[in-house]
Amino acid sequence: MNLSKQEYQRIRDFIYRKTGLFFEDRKLYFVQKRIEKRIEFLELETTDDYIRELQFRDPNGEELQAFLNILTTNETYFFREFDQLAAFAEHCLSEICERKRILGNTKLRVWSAGCSTGEEPYTLGIILKEMLGNEKDWLINILATDINTRVLNIAKKGVYEPRAIKDVPQEYLETWFQSFASERYSVHPIIKKMCSFEILNLMDRKALKNIVNVDFIFCRNVLIYFDNDSRKQVVSNFYDILNPGGYIYLGHSESMTRISSAFKIRRKGGYIVYQKPE
User: Fold this and answer.
1) pLDDT value at position 134?
2) What's this model's pTM, rounded to 2 decimal places?
3) For the sheet containing 177-179, what is the strand order?
4) Dihedral sign, CA of 186, 75, 168, 84?
5) Domain around 211
6) Closest Cα to residue 118, out of 250, 235, 255, 218?
7) What is the CATH number of the domain that holds 32?
């Protein structure tokens, strides 16, 4: 099957309208191979048949979800971008916690937006347990969301291959993971209990209204899949969701200054982070 440029644009524009995800022209072959898989699974004959399936024969969005699941699979691992996590743990977290102690506020909420298979939110849970000491003093919630239901199912199980835990410090590995004879590692139930996993389209304003009072947002290597207009909309929603003084973390190749001027640029522990003004 050869996907024509016109067919590709129809598929691309449909996905963009539904999710804000934008696939450039150079992604044509990538998208084509995934359409082929769905055509074979559904026993269709042509790309045009599949486009009609998405647009007119999918009232509950089940096929759209299946298509998104094979379009948005990303590899990740525990303690990715370690220096940034160190800046969060050693500088930003203590700042926010001290402010909350003064106010008598014991609630701490972190959002992993685009959590993939769960390594990031579980990493954040480990960091919070290690840094805050007596966790009874804090009501901690880590919200983890993704548009891909397949990766969310993996995340909820919390069981990983050795390559996913390759950067976990040995002390943390022994404390917060349970290993099996099959060389698989399960996240400790205490950490799993801290995290809630939900499907979420970052362009769904109605769903985003249910997310409030967040102190930290981690949206690393996610906005690269959006175009400029979608990025601005997503970041505007992040701004509304963050508590005053809260922080947002992007991937090392991403820059907030190209998207929004609403956040203050901070250097914490030698790392650039973005803060909502108090």
Assistant:
1) 62
2) 0.92
3) 159-160, 185-187, 177-179
4) negative
5) 82-275
6) 218
7) 1.10.155.10
Report in angstroms the alpha-carbon separations of 29 from 1, 22, 45, 186: 11, 15, 18, 36
Contact 117, 155 (CB under 8 A): yes
Number of domains in the chain: 2
Low-confidence ranges of the chain (pLDDT < 50): none
Asked if 142 and 207 sit in the same domain, the reply is yes
Phi, psi for residue 58 in degrees, rounded to 5: -135, 60
Distance separating alpha carbons of residues 161 and 182, to the nearest angstrom:
9
CB 262 within 8 A of CB 239: yes
Question: 118-154: per-residue pLDDT in tens?
Answer: 999 999 999 999 999 766 789 999 999 999 999 999 9
Helical residues (DSSP H) of 43-166, grouped into ranges:
47-56, 62-71, 82-87, 93-103, 119-132, 149-157
CB count within 10 Å of CB 53 equals 17
How many angstroms separate the CA atoms of 241 and 110, rounded? 11
**DSSP class of 221:** T
| Strand partners for 195 | 142
Is-contact 154 110, C-beta < 8 A? no
Could you say which of 50, 71, 92 is where a domain stops? 71
Question: What average pLDDT does the structure give for the chain?
Answer: 93
Tokens of 214: 């967040």
